[in-house]
Amino acid sequence: MDPKSLIGAIDEKSCLDFLSMMVRQKSHSQTEGERELARIMARQMEAIGLQSELQAFDNGERFNAIGRLKGTGGGKSLLFNGHLDTNPVTEGWTVDPWGGLVDDKFIYGIGVSNMKAGDAAYFCAVKTLLDAGVKLKGDVTLTYVVGELQGGVGTLAAIRNGVKADYFINSEPSDLAAVTMHAAALSFVIELTGDTRHLSKREQSVDAIAAACDLIPRINAMTFSGARSGVHRSINRGHVGVVHGALGRELEEWRPPQVADFVRIRGSARYAPGQTQEGVLADLAAELTQLETRFPGLKAKLVPEMIEGRPLMPPFEVSPTSRIVTSINAAYEAVRGEKQPTGAITPTRFYGTDAGHLYHELGMEGIVCGPGGRYNTMPDERVDIVDYLDMIRVYMLTILDICEVA
After folding, report:
1. What single DSSP character describes residue 260?
2. CA 189 to chain centre
3. Most buried of the four, 152, 227, 233, 248, by CB within 10 Å?
4. What is the pLDDT of residues 97-106, one digit of tens each?
5. How far is it, in rounded angstroms, from Cα 348 to Cα 368?
6. Under a CB-based contact definition with an 8 Å cutoff, are residues 226 and 279 in contact?
7. How far apart are CA 173 and CA 152, in angstroms?
C-alpha cells in the first residue's frame, strides 16, 4: 500500500472528535475520572481490534490501559507511551476547560497539550491503518498510563507488568520536534541558619536573607560536573522556586526589626545522562561551602527532597542515528516537506518524561515526539489542529517503517 495515499486517508473530523471526547473526561491524578478514562481507552482499543487490558497497581486503586496489535511476525515492535492524568484547572480560562472546543485553528482543553493530543494521535494512527486494511509484521503496543505527574508511577507499573518493545515513542508535547535527550530531575532543600540581632546592631548579625540573596543567582546559573559533552551540559540547570526567610525554624514573621536568622530554600536541578544525583548534590554542597566563607558564622545544610511514592524522573538519551530517530525524521519530512528539528530541543530538554523510565529500566531506544507544547500548561491550553493531524500522519508512517507491512 502506498504510504502517500495513507497520509490523506485519515478522517480528520473523527480524529478531532476522538480528542474532544478525551478532553471532556476530567482525568485529574488519583481521581475516579482518571480511572474512568483508562476504562474508556481500553474499550476503544478493544473496539478497533486490539488486545486490550486494564493493568491494576497501587493496591488496585489505579490502572493503566494497554492495547496490543499483534503482527504476523518478522518485523520490529513499537511501543507508544502517553499519560492520561492532567494538571488542575487554573484561573484565567476564557473557554470551558472540559469542553473540547474546536475552532478553525485550535482544539482547547485542560490536558489537551499535556498530553491527550499525543494520546489520541497514536490511537488514530493505528485505527487509520486498520481501517485501510494494513497488516503489519511487527507488534504495536499502545500504553495509556496514569501517574506521570507523580513521577511516572504508571509507566513503572507497566514495565513491571512486562510491557516492552524494540523501540518506543513517548508522545509528550514537543511541537513535533524529535527530542533525543532530556534531563533528569532532582529536588532539594537548603536551610541557612544565621545569627540574629536587632537592626540597630545589624553589623554583628549573620543575615540569612542576605546570604540567600547571594546564593540564589549562583544556583540559577549553575551547571554540574561530569557532563559528557557541551550538549549534555546544555541540559544542566539549577533553579530556586521557593524562598522563605524569617526568625527561627518556625519562620516567625511578626518581628521585622530583627535580622532574619533562618531561610528555607526549595529548588530543582536538571542534569544529563552520565551525570549523577550524587555529583549534583556534591556541586551544590561545594557552593554552600563557599557561601559559608563569604558569610562567616553562617551554617548551610543541603538535603535532597524525596516525596514518598513519587520516583525521580531519570534522564533520557538516544543516538541521532538510531533507527527510531531516522524513521520518524523521514516520516516528518514526507508529511511536511522539510527536515524535522532533532536533538536536545528547548524547552523539552528540561522536561521530565516517562521516556526516562523506558530508557533506564529497559534500555529501550526511543524518541520523545508529540503534538502541542507552545500553549502547554497555561490558561486556554490548546493544540494547533494542523499539528495534531500531522502527528497522526507521522506516527502512521513511522509504524509502517518500523513494523513493516506484512
Report:
1. P
2. 22
3. 152
4. 999 999 999 9
5. 9
6. yes
7. 16
Beta strands at 184-193 and 178-179: parallel, antiparallel or unpaired: unpaired
- Spatial distance between the Cα atoms of 367 and 181, rounded to a whole number of angstroms: 8
Closest CA to 80 of 137, 183, 185, 155: 155
Encoded amino acid at 78, one letter: L
The amino acid sitting at 203 is E
C-alpha cell at 313: 524522573
200: exposed, middle or buried (Cβ count in 10 Å: 0-12, 13-18, 19+): exposed
Polymer length in residues for the chain? 406
**pTM, two decimal places:** 0.92
User: Beta strands 62-69 and 140-145: pairing type?
Assistant: antiparallel
Q: Give pLDDT tens digits for 17-72.
A: 999 999 999 999 889 999 999 999 999 999 999 999 999 999 989 999 999 999 99
Q: Which helix (H) or strand (E) holds 401?
A: helix 385-403
Strands (E), 97-139: 106-108
Q: What 3-state class would DSSP assign to 206?
A: strand
pLDDT tens digit string along 339-387?
999 999 988 899 889 999 999 999 999 999 999 999 998 999 999 999 9
Residue showing cell 472540559? 98
Nearest to 320 by CA among 218, 178, 225: 178
Contact 165, 366 (CB under 8 A): no
pLDDT the model gives residue 1: 60
Residue 150's nearest CA partner among 57, 85, 241 is 85
In the chain the first and final C-alpha atoms are separated, in Å, by: 10
Measure the CA–CA gap between 323 and 326, rounded to whole angstroms. 5
DSSP 8-state symbol, 176 = T
Contact yes or no for 219/267 (Cβ under 8 A): yes
CA 322/CA 355 separation, integer angstroms? 15
Distance of alpha carbon 389 from alpha carbon 377, whole angstroms: 21
